[in-house]
Amino acid sequence: MVLARLQWRVGPSHPHVFGYTRGVSTADSILTLLTQIDHRPTVIVFIDLEKAFELASPHAILDALVRKGVRGRLLAWLRDYLQCRHARVKFQGLRSTFKELENGTPQGGILSPLLFNLLMEQLVALPFHAGTVLLSYADDLALVVTGRGNKLRRTQQALDLISGKCQDLGLKISAEKSRAMMVKAADPAWQLRVQGVELAWTNSYQYLGVWVDKRLSFTAHAAYLRERTQSRLNSETSLVPLTTRIQQITACRVSRVLQRDTEGVTQRRLRLAGTQGIESLSRNPWLLQCTLATHNLARMENWPQADLPAPTFSAPPPWEPPVAEFSATQLPASKALCTVEEMQQHAFMAMAQVTEPDSVVYYTDGSADPDSGRTGAAAITRGAEVCERTPNHCSTLQTELVAIQLALEHAQHRRERTVVLHTNSRTGLQALQQPYPSNNVGLVTAILGSLQSLAAQGRRVRLNQPRGSTRQ
C-alpha cells in the first residue's frame, strides 16, 4: 500500500535510471550505452559504488522525497522507516547487543529499491557538459563522454562532479574497482582520477553481464558465452548454433525497443537503420548486426503500434476506491459434479441477487472460432442488442472485453441509476481489477474510462460473473 502511494507521488524515474523500473531491463541500459557511443571515439568510465545500499544517507533520501512533493504523514512514516533502526546477530543460540543502523536502506525491503533510485536520479541529472551522460542500473554506473574537443578533460570534470555529489548522498566510489575505457581510440597517457586515485585503463569490461570491448566487436562476450555453454553441457549437437541464437536474442531486443511507449534515441537510430541499405551501415557494427538480425521480420512501417492507455482513462491514485463493484459467484461443487440444470439454477439465483430496482441489466459474451479465426462480441439487454465483428484471430479474452465495452457504451445513453453487467469471463474481470494493466492496455483502460464516466454521472456499476467456480 505504501509503495503504490509512494510511486504515485514521486512519478516516473529519470530515463537514464534503469534499475528496479517496470518494463526496463539491463538490455535497455546496454542499448542506450551503445547508442550514445554511436561508433565514435568515446571515453567510458565504469564506476563502482562501494556498499551503496549500506551507505546511502537517509537524510539525502528524505530530502529527495521532499523535492518530489512527499509531505505529511507519508513523509513522517518514511522517516521512521529509515531512521533509528536497530539490529542484532544471533549465532549458536547467543544474541549480540543491538546496534543502531545510521545509514542505508533496509535490505530486502519492498521500498528500498525505489528509495535508492531517488539518489541515483540526483547523480544522472547532474549538470554535465554536452555529450556527457551518466547511466545507472542499481549501483552500476557508466559515464559516457562523446563529441568534439578534449574528452578527457570533460570526463575528469564529470568525475569530480559525481564524486562531490556522492559524498553529499553518503555514497563512496571505489576507485580500485572502477575502470576507464577509450573506445575506438588508443589509450591516452593521461590518467583519470577519482578522489586522488588513478583509474586503470582497460580493453574490455563486463557491464551488466555483457563484455564490452574498446573495438565494440563483442568477440570477448561471444567467447564468454561459448565457454559457459561448453562448461554446462557435454554435447552441443542438439543446440541451436550460437550465431543463430545471438541473432534471435538481438531481434527480440530490437522488437522490444521499437515497441516502447516513449520515443527515444535508440528507437530513432534503429528505425533509421531499418530504412537504409546494409552497405551504409558497414562502419557501425552494432547497428549492422541489429539490422541483419531483424531482416526477416516485418517491415518497419508494419510494426504493431504501442499499446497505450485510452485517452478517456485517467489513472486514479491508489487510495481511491474502485469505480465499479466486482463479484463472482461460486458453484456449490465443481462443474464436473453439477448437472446443467443445477448450474442454470445457480446462475439465475446469482444474477437475481445483484439485480436491483431501477437498474439496466446487460449480458455480454465474446467468442472466437479456432478453425477460421473469426471473432465477435455481443451485449444484450431488454429491447436492445449490440454486436461487433472483431478482427480475426483475436483472443477470447479480447472479445469478452470488447463485449463489456459495448455494454458500457450503450449504458451511457440510459437513465437507470444502476448498471448491472453479467459476464462469464473471469479473466476479463481480473484484468479490470489490476492496478497497472500490462496486457491489452488500450482495451482495458478504455473500459475503465467508461466506468469512470458512469461514476462521474453518479451511477453505480456492478460487474458480475454468475457462473463458473474457483475450484475447477
UniProtKB/TrEMBL annotation:
CDD domains: RT_nLTR_like
MF annotations from Gene Ontology: nucleic acid binding; RNA-DNA hybrid ribonuclease activity
Stored SUPFAM superfamilies: DNA/RNA polymerases, Ribonuclease H-like
Bilayer-spanning residue ranges: none
Any one GO cellular component localisation term in the record: DNA polymerase complex
Domain Reverse transcriptase stretches: 1-212
Name this polypeptide is given: Reverse transcriptase domain-containing protein
Lineage: Eukaryota, Metazoa, Ecdysozoa, Arthropoda, Crustacea
